Amino acid sequence: MSARPPFAEFLQKGVVVFDGPMGTEIYRHHVFTNRCFDELSLSEPKLIRQIHQDYCDAGAEVLTTNTFGANRPRLEKYGLGERLEAIIRAGVRLAREAADQADRPVYVAGSIGPLGAAARDEDAQQRLILEQVDVMAEAGVDFILFETQPNREALELCARAMQERPSVPYVLSAAVYEDGESASGETVERLLAPLAEELPQPVAWGLNCGSGPHGMLGAVDQALKFVRRPLIVQPNAGTPKEVENRRIYYCSPEYFAEYGKRYVQLGAAAVGGCCGTTPEHIRALCETIKPLTRARTKPILVSPAGQAELKTPVPVADRSRFASRLARGRWVASVELVPPRGYNLEDIVTKSRLLHRHGVDAVNIPDGPRASSRISPLITADRIQREAMIEVILHFCCRDRNLIGMQADLLACAACGVHNILFVTGDPPKLGNYPHATGVFDTDSIGMVQVQKRLNQGVDLGGQSIDPPTAAFIGVGLDPTALDQERELDRFRQKVEAGAEFAITQPVFDPDALLRFLDRVQQYNIPIIAGIWPLASLRNATFMKNEVPGVIIPDWVMDKMASVSSRDDQWKMGVEIARQAVERVRDRVAGIQVSAPFGKSEIALAVIEGSSP
Predict the structure, then answer these.
(1) Most buried by CB count within 10 Å: which residue of 73, 328, 593, 611?
(2) CATH number of 14-294, picked from 3.40.50.720, 3.40.640.10, 1.10.10.410, 3.20.20.330
(3) Is the Cβ–Cβ distance between 455 and 469 less than 8 Å?
């Protein structure tokens, strides 16, 4: 058993992972729904204990007791009202056993669901709530979790009941649906509004159940604009389908985890699962979001006594041909080519030669995009520059190396003459084909910009002199359609202050969104290059719109792609849409980076040559 600080304190230390549902896991083990699930802690303790253990093994840091419906009115429907205390104590004991055997702090939340149609007068309702709270507190829960509460009235009822037990920490969590409202039509602002000052305050607020990962996103965004306490988010695994009289959820663990990452990026303090999620969803969630806490940190640049003197960096215009064009205000065009999964580089070099012959300024080489394993991007960049005679913009992510390794690779870039570097934080390994790989994330893109700036001044991480200094042209990523615009703006400001000298946006399908974002960053005097992704087909567009979180494709784009039927006409339409986007933003950006869908450089060239000034 590992020592545990109070849960409120633990919430402040980093992102916390809750478990998933007990009810749907019991159902998944073929227990009939006409049984009292809460009573299974007495009659089927091995099953309940194993479910807790599965969640704990998956990485959950909070286990929720099997007591969601263990209030007297609900138990009396099964003739179990007099066994309330025994049922709750057994539920707490089984969760506590699993938590205490972990080699890390694992908390036990006492689950209390809605009373339902219970006693009518409030005093009687509060007594029913306190009956559960008292048994749970005595049995050893770390806090009370009032979950899936249907409306503001129910939330306030729980808070008023807790006036009688001010020393017991508790969380209030409301159910919200796809429209971001409760079943009775109350908004998130109404549901999670601050409680009256005389009431004991919850250690956190929560949103759970009612909607899937995507549907919950808007509610989380709204809540974090006004909630002043930590927010816990526990969506369902999408919308269930009826298959042979069973409710089946189709949301994959990877899809669920990707949305968990987005909740954390918005500012959620904890994420878990509700109906339909499984230990595998929690495992994916844990492996995806736990590194994000570290990814936010910046490196501590050591400054020992006698640190080497900073040198004057090489002028931007002298660092590369690409940097020179941007420094002179010339329009630039680059194409993104993804390195192969094997080690044969002939195809990507051939495509790069073609791009060079057509006047493209640079080739962008991603670094393990979507957490995939591919040949070293630096080796790829070196071969392309030597054999295709075209400069490379090397993407450099923070996922796979520690700070020492990353500094070594930056020096290798300088030795190879790869001077255009775009720093990105990188996707967590769980999103790729190697989910059990470890993400390092010693720092994020902001921290690496700082490191590269110092190397350009002739000083390494340890304060030692390097001679000559590196001459990297420092780039960063930018997401104009980020859901949390304020966070994206703040991070861009930090990147510029750290030393960023140019930026490339994520692919933008809505030119208006990019133009609005550019209006808000015009005070930062660095060139911004627009990311353009020509859609290859209607199927490609549909997949990206519906299955790739964070990609926003307007309906008018989908309508245009659907207006033609043949594959040939569809890729031509995709090119035309991309060209129109370029024309809309041309006067506001320094150039374009065009992705080559499925490695088809001819499609990227069609966009560039059809959009040439």
Answers:
(1) 593
(2) 3.20.20.330
(3) yes
Residue 307 gets the label, from left (phi > 0), alpha (psi -120 to 50) or beta, of beta
Q: What is the dihedral of CA 507, 511, 512, 514, to 10 degrees?
A: 40
CATH topology for the 321-532 domain: TIM Barrel (3.20.20)
The two structure tokens encoding residue 109: 């939340």
Going from N- to C-terminal start, the domains of the chain cover 14-294, 321-532
Q: Using the 8-state DSSP alphabet, how is residue 582 labeled?
A: H
Residues 6+ apart with CB under 8 A from 594: 333, 334, 335, 336, 532, 533, 534, 578, 604, 607, 608
pTM for the complete prediction?
0.60
Other Cβ atoms closer than 10 A to 329:
8
| Owner of token pair 């104590």 | 89
Q: Can you give the length of the chain in residues?
A: 613
Q: How large a percentage of the chain has pLDDT more than 70?
A: 90
CA gyration radius, the chain: 27
Q: Whose structure tokens read 């509004």? A: 193
- Residue pair 591/571 in contact by the 8 Å Cβ criterion: no
Measured N-to-C along each axis, helices 511-520 and 567-585 cross at an angle, to the nearest 10 degrees, of 20
pLDDT in tens, 299-349: 444 344 346 889 999 999 999 999 999 999 999 999 999 999 999 999 999
Cα–Cα distances in Å, from 258 out to 264, 265, 287, 372, 582? 10, 11, 11, 15, 29
Residue with tokens 């249907």: 150
DSSP single-letter state for residue 41: H
- What six digits make up the tokens of 174? 């409301």
Question: Do 267 and 224 contact (CB within 8 A), yes or no?
Answer: yes
Dihedral sign for Cα 29, 31, 32, 33, please: negative
**468 preceded by cis ω (within 30°)?**
yes
Q: Which amino acid is at 193?
A: A
